[in-house]
Every structure is written in structure tokens, then in C-alpha cells.
Design goal:
Blueprint (H helix, E strand, L loop, with lengths): L1 H13 L5 H21 L11 H27 L5 H30 L5 H22 L1
Helix pairs in contact: 1-2, 1-5, 2-3, 3-4, 4-5
């Protein structure tokens, strides 16, 4: 997943300049999105024996925080006059990020309630994430 987002960032860096300052700002925001995503996804690297308290902290204080920051950055990027391929990338990234945020909210609820009743919904959203990533991957080809 990080590879796909990195591909988008690289695509921007390799694309012709479309307006000096705006281009630099978009590139900076995309780089920040990539860094935030790396931090948010660290949750999945936690050891299975990690305490519920630490899992909740990782989801709430790191994961959800970084997904929210990325949504804000993507909203800022959407305010720029982007060419069609770039606009489509940003829209797909927005959908991807929103889905990730929703998954983390469900995970947080499951942890706090000590239940598995959200597993099916989380699984469904993970499939949606994969579908969006597949679309992004097709765009990057």
C-alpha cells in the first residue's frame, strides 16, 4: 500500500510543472500524507501480545489522528486547479484515506467494547481499501 502512495508521490515529482508554487505545495502535502500513512499503519506491526491499552492508544492517538490529518491535507490539495489525472489520483487517495479512517474507528470500538462484532464490517472495508488500491495501481501504470 505504501508503494502505491509512493508511486503517486513519484508521479507528481516526475510530472511536468503545472504551476510553480502550487506544484511545490501539492508535492509537500503529498509527502506529508505519505509520512502520516507510514505512522498510521504502524498499528499493524504491533506484536500480537500488545496490551489492549497500547492497542487503543495506537489506534486512537496515532492511527485515527494521522488519517484525519491526511484527510485535511487531501481536502487542501483538492482546492488546487489540478489536471485531470492528478485530480483523479487525489480523489482516489481521499476515498482510500476515508476508508482507512473508518476501519480504525471500528477497530477502536471493537477494542473498547472487547468484541468481535465489527469484524465483518472491518473485513468488508478492507476489501474496499484493496479495490481502491487496485484502481490507484491501474492509474499509475
Amino acid at each position: 500500500m505504501l508503494v502505491i502512495v509512493a508511486a503517486v508521490v513519484l508521479y507528481y515529482f516526475m510530472a511536468p510543472e503545472y504551476s510553480g508554487q502550487a506544484d511545490r505545495e501539492v508535492k509537500q502535502k503529498l509527502e506529508q500524507i505519505y509520512q502520516n500513512e507510514e505512522k498510521a499503519l504502524k498499528f499493524y506491526a504491533l506484536e500480537p501480545q500488545t496490551s489492549t491499552e497500547d492497542l487503543v492508544k495506537a489506534v486512537k492517538d496515532e492511527g485515527i489522528l494521522y488519517w484525519n490529518l491526511n484527510l485535511q491535507l487531501l481536502e487542501e490539495i483538492q482546492q488546487y486547479e489540478l489536471e485531470e489525472p492528478y485530480e483523479e489520483y487525489i480523489n482516489k487517495l481521499f476515498i482510500y484515506t476515508r476508508l482507512r479512517q473508518e476501519i480504525y474507528i471500528l477497530i477502536l470500538q471493537a477494542l473498547q467494547e472487547d468484541t468481535d462484532k465489527y469484524d465483518r464490517e472491518i473485513e468488508q472495508k478492507n476489501r474496499s481499501v484493496q479495490a481502491v488500491l487496485d484502481e490507484i495501481d491501474q492509474m499509475a501504470i
